[in-house]
Amino acid sequence: MLKNTILAISLSISATSLMLVPTLSAQAASPTDESLLQLIEVTKVVEMMDDMASDSGIAEQVTQSMLASLPSDNLTAEQREGLEQIVSEYSKEMTDISDMKNLNQQVVAAYLETAKQHFTQQEVDAQIAFYSSDEGQSIIDKQPAMMKDYMEQVMPIIMESTMEKVNDIVPKMIADIEALEIEQ
Predict the structure, then answer these.
(1) CB atoms within 10 A of CB 79
(2) How would DSSP label each residue in 106-149?
(3) Which whole number is the average pLDDT over 74-100?
């Protein structure tokens, strides 16, 4: 009986200790706005966003991905040209970011808020130290090209999968809506 009581107490203490771990780590120093702004600067977040917004290749990528996902086998040359023009126009509209300063401010504010929920001051300091190093800067400088190449590969996959789902779901959804016999 004494053995069972000691075991129960030990398990209870262990369970209590495990429950305290998140509480203790959550009480660690929250990063300051100043340090997070330094991290944003070192990782060139705003610079990358500005570069992406000015990259006309993004609109072309979106256009090509959308065109690749649309059924165009039975189109005449004129219809295909019209479709390409429409998709290109809307792709440019989707990727147009005319107010970058305002967008950058919103992104920075969201980053500050989110980072404070996930990182401690010590973790932010470690990131600043790494990304300030030559290796860290090299990684940061390579990110845009790597992400561009990655997106060129992944966008057609995502668009194809999405279009397959849309093509499968939309007729069913239309049938279900029509079955409601809603009067207009």
Answers:
(1) 11
(2) HHHHHHHHHHHHH--HHHHHHHHHHHHSHHHHHHHHHHHHHHHH
(3) 77
Highest mean pLDDT among 4-8, 20-24, 64-68, 81-85: 81-85
CA distance 124 to 30: 9
For 29-80, how does the pLDDT look when each residue is reduced to its tens digit (9 = 90+)?
Answer: 899 999 999 999 999 988 887 776 666 566 676 677 777 767 667 778 888 8
Distance CA 137, CA 130 (A): 8
Q: Look up residue 59 and give its two tokens.
A: 């609109």
Kindly tell me the burial class for residue 124, based on how many C-beta atoms sit within 10 Å of its own C-beta (0-12, 13-18, 19 or more): buried
Q: From residue 145, give the alpha-carbon distance in Å to each of 45, 62, 151.
A: 14, 16, 10
Would you say the pTM of this structure is higher than 0.70? no
Cα separation of 155 and 141, whole Å?
A: 22
Comparing CA positions, the residue from 43, 58, 9 lying closest to residue 137 is 43
